[in-house]
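User: Fold this; tokens only.

Assistant: Input:
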Amino acid sequence: MTREKETELAKAKDVFFRKIFHEIRTPSHTLHGAIQQLQLWMRQCGDKEGKAKFESVETEWSKLLTLVEDAADASLFHLGKVF
């Protein structure tokens, strides 16, 4: 492959990964807000079992979002764009 085609391919990959990470992050933040609201409601209702379950969901959500952020950073690092 020529240098020009390699550069073009790298740019296309960059655009693809940015779109994918955006499509994952956006609903993840919405989901996080909903989880927090449900936790608050469970706390106000005194439902300790429900609150504990949603804390577990929030923990797993946080792990997933961290994984997505790490993958996004790795993608940018590979392209030489990490600050």
